Structures are given as structure tokens and as C-alpha cells.
Amino acid sequence: MSKFDYAGWPAWAIGKCDGLLVVGASLPTRDGRVCGNAVLVDYITHVYHAGGIYEEGVYVVATDMGNLMNLNEAEVRQLFYDPVWVCSESDIWKRINTWRE
Predict the structure, then answer these.
(1) Three-state secondary-structure class, residue 80
(2) Would 88 be classed as within a structural domain?
(3) In the prediction, which pLDDT does 29 show?
């Protein structure tokens, strides 16, 4: 598919990520009994927790039911198939606000 060939793209997609974990990546679930489809809403490079626990590389993921999860890359890859499509940040927050109503 060429860069400018939009035939077959979902209406909400603004681009392709081909497996890369980027903000806006649509994450199709591997097992709907564990969690639903999701979208990657943020990436935090360093997180410090109470008690001095340090975490590196945290992905913030919003599920289709509006739940937020903080996951490392291995957990994202375990719960979701590799993403193909990216949606806009404004679309992400519209979806989250809709889910929470």
C-alpha cells in the first residue's frame, strides 16, 4: 500500500504503525475474556512509586470500556496483537469520554 492509498483504512485511522507502540495505536485484544480492545494513550519513560520502586517504560492503555491500565511492553504484547492503525489524540479522548458517560 502506498503512503497515499487510503482505500481499506478504517474511517477513524490517521495512519499506520505496523506493530510499533505509538500514542494512538489501536490495540486489538488477544482474549476478550481478559480485557477488551484498547488504544495506547500515553508513554511514560520513568515512573517512581512509593517506597522507592522505579519502573521504566510504562504504556498507558485505555480499554474499550474506559478502564486505564499501566503496562510495560511485555504486558502490552501479551494482552494485545501488534497494532496496525493509529487514531488521532482528539479521537482517543472523545472515545474515553463516551465510554465514561
Answers:
(1) strand
(2) yes
(3) 95
Q: What phi and psi values does residue 34 have, to the nearest 5 degrees?
A: -90, -50
Cell numbers for 96, please give them: 474515553
Q: How many domains does the chain have?
A: 1
Tell me the residue type at 22.
V
The three three-digit cell numbers of residue 62, written as one number = 485505555
In a domain, 101, yes or no: no
Q: What is the mean pLDDT of residues 49-67?
A: 80
What pTM did the predictor assign?
0.77
Reading the block at residue 75, the C-alpha cell is 504486558
Tell me whether residue 74 is in a domain. yes
Q: Is 32 helix (H, G, I), strand (E, B) or coil?
A: coil
Q: What is the tens place of the pLDDT at every residue in 23-53?
A: 999 999 999 999 999 999 988 887 776 677 6
| Residue 23 belongs to some domain of the structure | yes
